[in-house]
Design brief:
Elements (H helix, E strand, L loop, with lengths): L13 H18 L8 H9 L15 H10 L6 H12 L5 E6 L4 E6 L1 H8 L11 H4 L3 H8 L3 E4 L12 E8 L6 E9 L6 H21 L6 E5 L7 E4 L2 E4 L2 H12 L6 H9 L6 H15 L4 E2 L4 E2 L2 E4 H10 L3 H7 L11 H21 L2 H8 L8 H10 L7 H25 L1
Parallel strand pairs: 6-11
Antiparallel strand pairs: 1-2, 1-5, 3-4, 4-5, 6-7, 7-8, 9-10
Length: 425
């Protein structure tokens, strides 16, 4: 079976595929639907990118001292020498670039031959630019972050036309202790990159970076960590094991973490199913299966509660907010809590965390924090936050035109929403 993350199967003519996918891209722009010959990962990315102008280039979000300070404090700065060691030779051969971005798709480093960099600058493939799918459409680093998987994007598979002369491969990088997404590493060049070796290389580089980060920060024996922000299914790490939980088990684990004092079966049932859908037999079965997954040393009963030391990314956000540290809270925040969950207890907690973090960022009125918040899925459509960002930025700041344009866009969408609602009411 072909690897769905590779752009070209063995023996496929690159020029023929470029023409086929290019025609599919034009058909998608005209009709909003992509033919089946387009890879599934690309088709879904085009759908997520559909609101973008296909001629636009990504905006530059950070520059000069602000960019230098942000890069210096980023966790991936610790493994930059490793990236240069593993990919530097490719980046200097005159045909490729090495790029590293943060979890929001913001390019941190772009290195390679000066001539190739100058060509890439024409599409704003430069440090400080936003290359997530929301700003750049389908591309390897942005799509790798969106799907949390290494991926290759070939020529006309890019959503933005100015990027279609390039081919790239990227792999996400996670914090080895918590599983939190830190960013991605990418190689970008010509059509010849559409081969299994480039994808294998960025995958190996990402794994090497995670291994080095793990060496820098050893895992504490017996301490479990839970990652539940920005993902529909939580991941548990304990004693070297990585356990990806299903949706219901993820919800139960989050609810138990939120109530360290313990929870009765009835309370858990109400948090999980709501008042009118309480199913005690189903709940007991779910808890029994969860105990088998976690082990009896982690899950106790009467009341149900977690034993030992269990840390979670969402509790870290809350703890740092309680300490008056909105910057630290935002750094630990990688998205909303189990965004696909409709369990009442999880929904309330998700709104609480997002609301408290938003309030702290707005109160701080710090341009860097406001920019980081508006780069998150929860803050992307937050008109008030964008307005606060525009007020906090100096007139000549590179981010200010982006903020003003986003304000105009959101204001127009909100007016349309109100008009539509009035017509229907």
């Amino acid at each position: 079976m072909a690897d769905p993350w590779l752009a070209l199967e063995f023996g496929v003519d690159p020029a023929e595929r470029i023409a086929q996918v290019g025609a599919a891209h034009e058909a998608f722009l005209a009709a909003g639907a992509a033919p089946h010959r387009v890879r599934e990962v690309v088709r879904r990315s085009w759908e997520r990118s559909a609101r973008l102008d296909p001629e636009a280039t990504p905006p530059i979000d950070l520059a000069d001292d602000a960019l230098a300070g942000y890069r210096a404090a980023h966790p991936l700065a610790r493994v930059l020498p490793l990236f240069r060691d593993l990919l530097g030779g490719i980046a200097q051969d005159g045909a490729h670039l090495m790029a590293v971005c943060d979890a929001y798709g913001r390019l941190l480093w772009v290195e390679g031959h000066p001539g190739v960099r100058r060509h890439a600058e024409r599409m704003n493939f430069v440090p400080g630019a936003l290359w997530d799918e929301r700003h750049a459409g389908t591309n390897a680093p942005g799509t790798a972050l969106a799907v949390d998987h290494s991926v290759q994007i070939f020529a006309t598979e890019h959503f933005s036309r100015p990027v279609q002369r390039w081919t790239c491969a990227a792999a996400p990088i996670h914090d080895p202790a918590t599983g939190r997404l830190l960013g991605a590493v990418d190689i970008t060049g010509g059509d010849h990159l559409a081969n299994p070796h480039s994808l294998a290389l960025v995958r190996a580089t990402a794994r090497a970076a995670e291994a080095q980060l793990a060496t820098d920060r050893p895992v504490e024996p017996g301490v479990a960590t839970v990652t539940a922000l920005g993902r529909d299914e939580a991941e548990l790490r304990v004693d070297g094991r990585r356990i990806r939980l299903g949706r219901r088990h993820s919800e139960l684990l989050v609810l138990l973490l939120h109530h360290p004092e313990g929870r009765t079966g009835e309370q858990l049932g109400l948090d999980l199913y709501g008042d009118d859908r309480l199913h005690p037999v189903t709940l007991r079965a779910e808890l029994s299966r969860l105990r088998r997954v976690l082990g009896p040393e982690l899950l106790d009963s009467r009341p149900y509660r977690l034993r030992g030391t269990v840390r979670a990314d969402f509790t870290t956000v809350s703890d740092r907010l309680d300490q008056g540290d909105p910057a630290g809270a935002l750094d630990a925040y990688s998205g909303s809590l189990l965004p696909g969950s409709d369990a009442p207890g999880v929904t309330r907690l998700r709104r609480l965390i997002d609301g408290q973090l938003r309030a702290a960022v707005l109160a701080a009125a710090d341009p860097a924090l406001l920019a980081a918040w508006t780069a998150t899925p929860a803050g992307a459509d937050d008109l008030t936050a964008w307005q606060a960002l525009a007020r906090a930025l100096p007139t000549g700041a590179p981010r200010r035109p982006l903020a003003l344009a986003r304000i105009d866009q959101l204001a127009g969408e909100y007016d349309l929403t109100r008009a539509t609602w009035l017509q229907r009411s």
